Amino acid sequence: MRIKLISFLICFSILSVTISTVILNILFPYRNGKTLFNLYVVLVTLERVWETFYTTKEKEPRKLAGDWTWILVIFTYLITGLSTIFEFFMFPKGLNIIVSIISSFVFILAFLLRIWAVNTLADQWTT
Predict the structure, then answer these.
(1) Is residue 55 within 8 Å of 127, Cβ to Cβ?
(2) If we measure between CA atoms, which residue out of 80, 93, 88 comes closest to residue 28?
(3) 10, 60, 96, 105 - which has most CB atoms within 10 Å?
(4) Do the beta carbons of residue 17 and residue 41 sit within 8 Å?
(5) Longest dimension (CA), the chain
(6) CA separation (Å) from 126 to 10, 48, 51, 123?
(7) 6 close to 63: Cβ distance less than 8 angstroms
(8) Residue 118 CB-half CA count within 13 A
(9) Which residues contact 37 (CB under 8 A, 6 or more apart)?
C-alpha cells in the first residue's frame, strides 16, 4: 500500500507538471523564453525524482516506514514546481540573461557536487 502511494505520487507529480506545462504552452503561445524554460522544467523534474527516489541505498526506497516526511517532500516539490510554472506563464517578466546564466551554472554545479559527494562518501553515504 505504501509503496503504491509513493509511486502514485511520483507519477502524479511528473504528470501534473508535464500537463500543466503543455496546457500553459497552448494558452500562452507567444511567451518569450518558453522553450528554454520548458527544457529547464523537464530537467529539474527528472533530476529531483531521480535523486530523491532512485539513488538511495535502501532496499525499498519508495516504502514509507512510518515516516510522513516523504509525502510532505513530494507535495512541497509539486507545489513549488507548479507555482514556478504558473508564475512564468501568467506573470510575464523580461528575461535576465545574467541571472539565467548564474542560476544554470549553480544548478549544474550543485548536481556535480552531489555526485562528487556520493562518490567520495562511498559506503558512508545514505539519503
Answers:
(1) yes
(2) 88
(3) 10
(4) yes
(5) 50
(6) 21, 16, 12, 8
(7) yes
(8) 12
(9) 88
Q: What is the pLDDT of residues 48-104, one digit of tens each?
A: 777 777 766 666 665 666 667 777 877 888 898 889 889 888 887 777 889 888 988
* Residues 6+ away with beta carbon under 8 Å from 45: 13, 14, 17, 18, 81
- Phi/psi class of residue 94: alpha, beta or left (left: φ > 0; alpha: ψ in -120 to 50)? beta
Number of neighbouring beta carbons within 10 Å of residue 111: 14
Q: Give helix 34-54 / helix 97-121 axis angle, nearest 10°.
A: 20
Q: What is the 3-state secondary structure (H, E, C) of the chain?
A: CHHHHHHHHHHHHHHHHHHHHHHHHHHCCCCCCHHHHHHHHHHHHHHHHHHHHHCCCCCCCCCCCCCCHHHHHHHHHHHHHHHHHHHHHHCCCCCCHHHHHHHHHHHHHHHHHHHHHHHHHHHHCCC
